[in-house]
Amino acid sequence: MGDHGCSGNLPPGFIFSPSDEELILHFLDRKASLLPCHPDIIPDLGLYPQDPWQLEGRALSSENQWYYFSRVMENQATGNGFWKPLDTEEPIFSSSAGKKVGLKKYLVYCIGPEGVETNWMMQEYHLCSGKSNGKSYKRKQKLDCSKWILCRVYQREGSCSRSLNHSSDDDGTELSCLDEMFLSMDDLDDISFPN
């Protein structure tokens, strides 16, 4: 599969910046149809949801965004939190045929027992059910089409909704949302996450 921690097998100077339609038609559709993808640069991270900071070196990284294939999961719990679905879905249409080819769903990463939202976001790309590429792989695609998603993870701009002051000595250093969350959990011995 190549070096997924950077820009894969692309030559220097090339940036992976596909449109939503390209992610659906050129990557996810081929993965679900069990067809080879050229270039094969987006890794399959399997059955378990990922903490966003664990993606570096495992997922395809491009311009502070991480891309990977995953299986569709009901439980989005990770080792340190969970991905919470937002009530936002966008249809994705083919520019050539004008047909709906996929769906983009949004999730936010929450951490800690209270499920405090962070600035980590995920866009999940799903194929439309019954999507067919017209090839002789229809039988296999029907088996795999609803099982695969393509994930794009990134940090949204802005600061954490909750700021924590842990000392009166302000040296001008800003903490990230995750740093603030981990500092706020120093006194917690037992953290439980939703099922």
TrEMBL record:
GO terms for biological process: regulation of DNA-templated transcription; system development. This is NAC domain-containing protein. PROSITE patterns: NAC. GO terms for molecular function: DNA binding. It comes from Populus tomentosa (Chinese white poplar). InterPro entries: NAC-dom, NAC_dom_sf. Keywords: DNA-binding, Nucleus, Transcription, Transcription regulation. Residues 10-156 form the NAC domain.
